[in-house]
Amino acid sequence: MKEGGLRKIVAANWKMYKTRGEAEKTASELRVSMTEETAGGRRVVIFPSFTNIAAVAGVFAGHPSVSVGAQNFYPAVEGAFTGETSLNMLRDLGATWALTGHSERRHILGETDELVARKTAFALQEGFSVMLCIGETLAQREAGELDKVLSRQTESALAALPPDSLGRLAIAYEPVWAIGTGKVAGPTEALEAHAAVRALVLKLLGDAGRSVPILYGGSVKPDNAATLLELDNVDGLLVGGASLNSQSFLQIVNA
Ligand code: 13P
Predict the structure, then answer these.
(1) How confident is the model at residue 163 (pLDDT cuts 50, 70, 90)?
(2) DSSP helix/strand/coil, 45
(3) Between residues 77 and 183, which one has the greater pLDDT?
(4) How many angstroms does the Cα of residue 104 sit away from the middle of ligand 1?
(5) Which CATH number belongs to the domain containing residue 69 in this structure?
(6) What is the pTM of this model?
(7) DSSP label at 178?
(8) In a domain, 2, yes or no
């Protein structure tokens, strides 16, 4: 850990991959190697699909540094919302984290900043830890709108945080052009974006913003993880494709 640094978080977003048996198998392979020591003091969060949360949470029950999270939920306690899933239902399966603002939900499923803000505040209020994802598209970056997009997404999502919830918030900077493309943000691009996000968080939350972990996501692989983790203001990684295989995810956790 860098001096004064936060405890790093390495998170796996399994997206819409794996049947229950496959998820259980990968989780069990990870469990064998993830003693407290091999997790290197790092916190690990796994986001399986809804149908696999119970199985994965079962494998890691009682583990001191591995948590399980939900990729999505509907921001209401219960009600007539056909096809939706509540946080109470997810908590009941063993989820303690929730993702909000993932670019696939913003750009494929049409989630707006307003909905992302509502979901972020709701999950924190319900006692969940939240990983809020932000990030620009290639067109926005090329148009010189990086700062504008990051400010809009961060300011709207953090505008109405419930009291005493800051300790449960993490932000993941995921440039949309780096997700699933094999193009990783170079150290300069990642440094610049993470510094901008840290400045925004400090502006919005004051000094308390120093303790909000900022993770990098987008084509993280075993061979670039260590370099990314060493950068200032990179407090962890959110991994998609390379987290599906237990060996490559373990290499990233231990990078
Ligand atoms: P990849 O690691 O597959 O680029 O996905 C990143 C991501 O979207 C994690 O949430």
Answers:
(1) confident
(2) strand
(3) 77
(4) 10
(5) 3.20.20.70
(6) 0.96
(7) G
(8) no
